[in-house]
Amino acid sequence: MAANENKISLKLMVHKEKLKVAFAEADYTFVDTLFSIMTWPMATIVRVLDKCPDQNLQALGSLKNLYQSLEELPASYFSNEDSKFMMLNPTTSAYDLCRNLKLNIDDSEPTKCFICQNSNCSENRGIYFSNSSVARCPSCSKLMNREIHSTNSVSRIFDDPGMFVPSLTTFIVTDDLRVMPNTLYSSVRLLCDLGITDASQLEERTFDIGREQMVILVKAALLCKNPLTFMVFHSIRFSGGLVNPKMGTSIQISTSNEEDTKLKKMTLRVSWQKSTSKFLFAEANEDFVDFIFGFLEIPLGTLVGKLMNGNTSIECLNNLFSSISNMSVGDSIKSQELKGMLIQPQLVLKYVSENQIFPLNVPNSFEYTLPGWRKRTLRDPRVNGRFLKAATKYILTDDLVITPLSSISGISMLNKLKVPLNDVEQHEVRIGIEKGLKILKASLRSSSTFTDALLEEIIESKKNDGVQEGVILLKSN
C-alpha cells in the first residue's frame, strides 16, 4: 500500500547519558496509528508482528503457535469449505477507516465479496454472498467464486485529516505508552516523576517512523516496559528493559458482571507428570478447540477492556487503553463513536462460534446491501453454530500447538520427553469463563499457557480432595 511508504516524525526528549526516551511529542499521525492497534483482532496482530524485522523478539506468548495450528489444520476438520478462512481473517468495523491512516501498518487484504458462479442462481434464486471464493452456494451447492465489488464500508468525509484524534491537537507519549494532551506543566511533572530535575541532562531529537519502526514499537510494547526507547535504540540491549515473558502461576482476573454459572462449560483433560507436576499435554473435544481458536478473533480493545478490565499482564497495553478511556470527546477524541471503535471494537461479522463464551461486540444483522444488487445475506460458514466438525478430538501442548488426536504421536511425545508411562496422571478440568480468561491471559505472555493458568489450582485441588485413580474433577468457579 502507498500509505505504508509514508513516514511520520516524532520529537523526542532523550536522557543523553542513559540513552532513554523520557517522552515523545506527537501529532495526530502517530497517535492515530498507535490507537488503531486497539481495533485489531489478535489474528491481525499475529500476522503483522510475524513480519517484524527483529525476529529475536518473540512476542504474544503462545498465540503465534495457535494461529499456525489453525493454518495447518487439515480442511477435513472444518464444518465448511470457508470456515478456516473466516476464522483466520476476522475484521472490525474500523478496518476501512484505518486504511486511510497516513501510516497504516495493517497490510491485511481488503475484504472481498463472492456470489454463486451460476448466474441463473445468483440473479434469480441466490440471496447469499461469501467473503471466501471456496464457499459453496446454499441454494445450488456450486462454488461461490464470482467476485462482485462492494462498498459496504461507511464512506466518511472529514474536514479534518485526523482519523481518531483532531489534527491540531498534539500529545505527550511516555516511554510506557501513556498518552495525554500536550501541556508544558504535564511534561514538567512527567520529568520530575522520572527523577529528572536538571534539564541539561536532556536533549531534543527527531525520529522518523515508517512501517518497520512502527511494527517494532508494537512488538516491543508487548515485551518491554519502555517500547519507545527500544524502538529508537533497539540495537542497544539495556539492562532491565525487557520483561521476562515467563509469568507466575497466580493470575487474578475479574469476570466483571458475567455470571459464569449460566455459561456453557467445556471439558479439558490435562495430563501431568506425577513426580514433577509438569504439564505434558491436554486432550479436548472440538468445542474447546473451537473456543480457543476463537482467541484470534478477539479485538485487542475488547481483550484489554471488556475481558481483562484494563488489567492484562502487559503494562503498556493497559496504559494505552486507559489513556483512550480517559480522553475527553471533542478535545482529544473526535467523537464518542470513534472512541467506541477503539475501546469497544465491533467485529464486522456476526458469525462467531456458539463455543465462544466471551462476550464480543457483533452486528445485529446478517444482511448487507451490495452495490448494484439486492439485499443479500452472508453465507453462514458454520454448521450447527460451529466452525469445527463435531465428534473430533485434539491434543494440545503447553504452548498451544494443536493437532488432531493421535495415540501413537502422543506416546512418541512422552518417549521424547523421557517420561515413564506410569508417571502420568490425568485431571479433568471444567472450563467456564473464569478459567477461559486465565488461559487467554496466560497465552498473551507465556509459552507455558496451561501450566500458568491451571497448575496452581490443580495442585490445590489435589491437596484438598486427594487423587482417585489419577483423575480429579475440578469445580469451576
TrEMBL record:
Task: Give the taxonomic lineage as stored in the record.
Answer: Eukaryota, Viridiplantae, Streptophyta, Embryophyta, Tracheophyta
Superkingdom, taxonomy of origin: Eukaryota
Q: Which Pfam families match?
A: DUF674 (PF05056)
Protein name, please? Uncharacterized protein
InterPro entries noted in UniProt: DUF674
Naturally occurring in which organism (per UniProt): Centaurea solstitialis (yellow star-thistle)
